[in-house]
Amino acid sequence: MEPEAGWGAAAAAAEPDQVSWATGEDQELLSLAGFFRTLYAVLFRPGEFFKNLGREGWAGPLAFALIVSSVGLMGALFWQLLVLAPAGDNLGDVAGLLPFQGLGPGLLLAMMAAAPVLGLANLGVGGICWWGSVALVGAGRDFTPAWRIFCYAQAGMALGLIPFFGLLVAGIWVLALMYCGVKQVYGISAGGALGTLAIYLALQVLLALTLLLGLVSVLAGLGFLLLLG
């Protein structure tokens, strides 16, 4: 497979005078209408959107992804807060199924306030993992195209606003958009796109386990020092 040829074939499909759905290309992302136009296109016309997606520019996609992911996360946390509120006692049966069960209201409010920071951290780490996954399947080594796919795929996080189970639906939708994006932009096969997703998820799990083991090691070290003291 020739990665550059695959990219060129996908890019050539867009006519020069065709208006791109990616509003970061034509500055429409600066307007509310442009933002929602992009959001609608990614969510409901992903094939056309990624087929016509350019390969240059990282700031517009970053801003788009940061806004959508922050709002989606805050929406998911809000529904968790609603369950914990006195007015939501009748919703207690679903509390055990929510992703943030066990967290107190104070911590949930703090996470809502920190949603942009958490979203930015997720974009940074996830974007690097996604770029590595694309490179490992031989689709391409340029960072920007992979970054643009990953950022625009975060449009699925808007579904986090769905009551109670939105975050689960959003996560699945984001992965589906990443699959569609890498398939359309790089012109790889369905198997190659699935392989890219599998590598990405494996890298995410490996990173999470590494961080968990590091945290356990630090806590164990501190406990040992306290015992010595």
How would you describe this structure in keywords?
229 residues; mainly alpha; disordered N terminus; single chain; 0% strand
Report the strand count. 0
- Output the structural class: mainly alpha
Overall helicity: over 70%
Number of domains: 1
How would you describe the shape? Answer: globular
Secondary structure tally, helices: 10
Mean pLDDT across every amino acid position? 79
Main sheet: strands, sense, barrel: none
Helices and strands, in order, run as HHHHHHHHHH
Termini separation: 61 Å
Low confidence ranges: 1-20, 87-95
Strand content: under 5%
Rg, Cα atoms, Å: 20 Å
Question: In words, what does this structure look like?
Answer:
By secondary structure, the protein is mainly alpha-helical. It has one domain (3-228). The protein is 70% helix and 0% strand. It has 10 helices and no strands. It has helices at 3-12, 32-44, 46-51, 59-84, 92-95, 105-113, 115-136, 143-153, 166-186, 190-228. Helix 4 crosses helix 7, helix 4 runs parallel beside helix 8 (143-153) and helix 7 (115-136) packs across helix 8 (143-153). The longest helix is centred in the C-terminal third of the chain and has 39 residues, at 190-228.
